[in-house]
Amino acid sequence: MKLTSLTAISPIDGRYANKTILLRNIFSEFSFLRYRLKIEIQWLKKIISISELLHNKKILSKDVLYLDDIFEKFNEKDAIAIKNIEKKTKHDIKALEYFLKNKISQSKNLMSISELVHFGCTSEDINNLAYALMLKDARDIIILPLWKRILNILKKMTFKYQNSSLLSLTHGQPATPSTMGKEIANFYYRMKRQYLRMNNIEILGKMNGSTGNYNAHLAAYPNINWYKITGDFVNSLGVTWNPYTTQIEPHDYIAELFSCITLFNTILIDFNRDIWGYISLNYFHQKCVDDEIGSSIMPHKINPIDFENSEGNLGLSNALMNHMINKLPISRWQRDLSDSTVLRNIGVAISYSIIAYHSVLLGISKLEINEKKLLHTLDQNWSILSEPIQTVMRRYGIKNAYEKLKNITRGKEINKNIIHAFISSLNIPEKEKERLKNITPSNYIGYSSQIINKIK
């Protein structure tokens, strides 16, 4: 059976392929080979720049351009060639080394230094830097721009609903009002913190040989400062050099990166559930799309499927990432292979997040606030004004203020007339009575509207 979006086992490459297609340029097997080829070529260029290693062999600028050309023209035919070599070697990085040696054999000058390909390297010197560049590109090109889109639309919602009074629900029960804008602002602020944190996470890499000590390098060229050379090389890739490792870069930064993503995702799950609830309460309408069907048997339904889809995919992403957070920083002694298959699934974990981000953006685009329902719900809950009334009573030294409000409001149907009659009976200045009577469930919103203006 030919692999298509219909025959793919994973919905990432099947049902949701249109949302994850850009990730193929980063996390596919082809792309992984391309990233690793980049590291091998850049390392060979670094070696060429060290005159002591060339033994008077002259490498011209055109030879270096030829190396660059190998990378720039890398295609699926080349990738297949590497995989065919791997069938014999049973080793992916050795297959890549042989492929590159074969490519440079067409250049007389480069052929003379072919044994400097993969010089001093263990496979993980190549792999860890390839993964570092993959994750850097995923973060900078895919994840952060999507987070920015989500943040921008939440910020717009914050100001759009700045004055939309909302009955709060603590423990699912009527509570002190807020505004819809302020409630969206809460999520915006939380997600913005993770966005800033994500930007600042260092992506690390190493290039120090079999157990991190430059043993082979120094055996061949004891007078060269490999410590500085490899540090400069790693930093030149846009990656932060990690000078202290075993055979593998210990993946702590991946755990940090995924920890940030999972927290952002958890906040977004919280958002999805709140919006889902507000839709259920009819605080939000969802725009009708004529050809869409909510239920196969109930024609009236418009389900909040985008928020549900987002929540489900965020859960899948977090489950995978949490395993990676716990697994990847652990390796037996100087190296074991249990991280290898896990690392090959980082694209899968990220893909579920990307699907979720697209879903929540689609869901938000369909929302229309129901101001009439918001105000009606508030008007049905005059008992929430027991809070400001008893607080003012305390100000004037009236004893048992809380208990008095509890007696007339708890578990009872309260309306404007009952509240105003109670206020009139209070032994407080007339001016204070008037001020309390001007408080309604819809305008008892504290600073919720004003503090939004301080959002950055």
Helix and strand element order: HHHHHHHHEEHEHHEHEHHHEHHHHH
Q: Proportion of β residues?
A: 5-15%
Describe the biggest sheet? 2 strands, antiparallel
How many helices in DSSP terms? 20
Instruction: Supply the helix-strand structural class.
Output: mainly alpha
Strand order of the largest sheet: 1-2
What does this structure look like?
One of its GO terms (cellular component) is cytosol. The chain contains 20 helices and 6 strands. Helix 17 packs antiparallel against helix 18 (401-409). The chain is mainly alpha-helical. Strands 1-2 form a two-stranded antiparallel sheet. Strands 3-4 form a two-stranded parallel sheet. A two-stranded antiparallel sheet has the order 5-6. The protein has helices at 17-20, 24-27, 29-48, 61-72, 76-89, 92-104, 108-111, 123-160, 180-200, 215-220, 226-236, 252-280, 305-327, 338-343, 346-365, 371-379, 386-395, 401-409, 416-424, 430-437, and strands at 165-170, 173-179, 204-205, 240-241, 284-286, 367-369.
